[in-house]
Amino acid sequence: MKKVMVGMSGGIDSSVTAYMLQNEGYEVEGIYLKLHNRTDGYHEKNLGYIKDVANFLGIKYHILDLADEFKEEVYDYFVNSYLEGTTPNPCVKCNRQIKFGAMLDFAKEHGASYLATGHYAKTDGEFFYEADDKTKDQSYFLSQVTKEALPYMMFPLSTYKKEDIIKFGEKLDSAYKRITEKNESQEICFVETVYTDVVKRHANIDMPGNVLDEEGNVVGKHKGYMHYTIGKRRGFTVDGAHEPHFVTKLNPTDNTIIVGKKEALEINSVEIENLNMFIDEKEFDCTVKLRYRSKSTPCHVKLENNKGQIELKEPVFGVASGQLAVFYKDEKVLGSGWIKNTK
Ligand SMILES: Nc1ncnc2c1ncn2[C@@H]1O[C@H](COP(=O)(O)OP(=O)(O)OP(=O)(O)O)[C@@H](O)[C@H]1O
């Protein structure tokens, strides 16, 4: 019987994942990663749910403390990105370095043939594909995972809708029902409310400064550049403005922000770096997502020396440095790169 390790968070998706794989005949073991202490008793609470599910399934589970790696690779990167005036994507880093880096190594060392998670995405061992439930699809966040990890990955939820997983869990057992009754899913697992609450523990984010127009004229005041991301339209003043103004650029060096009208957010080309490609072609047409939940835009791509240039065939509004450009051919992920500059 083949052994599958399941990354268990104490949430409904991974709990149902473990059940499904056991039902399919795999020998299942769980792994809980200690990544951060968002609130007091955070791990104890999650482990309480995991223990009940593991008892119900009759499986064993491991606890792996990756707090140091997580701090270095994900948390510090997250905070530093805001200090640098870019918009980070911590889940992308976590998937590459932690879940399908360190956790996968652990699973292999413990004799597992596969590592499964409750992510909504598909893989055939060579590529990632979008999940059937497009509203939950997480292929964007997985696109920096190394090619070498793909043959070990399993996503049993890829053909289901999240609401069906919840309904299934409610009926399965009280251990599962209890999980469906907690309502504490965060967009970013270590951010309780808004990102500024995390950043302000490490830096003084309240530093009033000048708002500039595109010509560099002072046109208003802001609360401190770290309060803003590209495309934001509130929380700063623009003297005498009748139309909405949007943040188009952050300047950490002099604590200024540049604003403009909607047209100023229009982007036609994007420079990327630190590529992770699943295909060998260096020049191709495809579609690209420049942030999670944006629609795919047709584009032409040229890659060279771990960098790339994307020419968009239709303009996109409000693209932030630090986010990921993910290339798709229909539902297939071709690869991705980090956004460095936009024009
Ligand atoms: N602390 C953790 N330890 C082990 N695996 C984890 C942990 N956090 C997340 N995972 C795995 O990564 C998957 C996707 O994580 P994400 O944070 O997007 O979860 P989610 O959709 O809320 O899922 P769940 O309902 O299982 O918490 C989870 O389904 C789980 O398999």
UniProtKB/TrEMBL annotation:
Site for Interaction with tRNA, residues: H119, Q323
Record-annotated active site: C94, C189
Record Pfam families: tRNA_Me_trans (PF03054), tRNA_Me_trans_C (PF20258), tRNA_Me_trans_M (PF20259)
UniProt keyword NADP, yes or no: no
The protein's Enzyme Commission number: 2.8.1.13
Residues that bind ATP: G7, M8, S9, G10, G11, I12, D13, S14, L33, G118
Subcellular location: Cytoplasm
Cellular component, GO, one term: cytoplasm
GO biological process, one term: tRNA wobble position uridine thiolation
Domain tRNA-specific 2-thiouridylase MnmA-like central: 197-261
Enzyme class: transferase
CDD domains referenced in this protein's UniProt entry, alphabetically: MnmA_TRMU-like
Record-linked PANTHER family: MITOCHONDRIAL TRNA-SPECIFIC 2-THIOURIDYLASE 1 (PTHR11933:SF5), TRNA 5-METHYLAMINOMETHYL-2-THIOURIDYLATE -METHYLTRANSFERASE (PTHR11933)
Family: Belongs to the MnmA/TRMU family.
HAMAP family tied to this protein: tRNA_thiouridyl_MnmA
Protein name: tRNA-specific 2-thiouridylase MnmA
Gene source species: Halarcobacter ebronensis
Encoding gene (name): mnmA
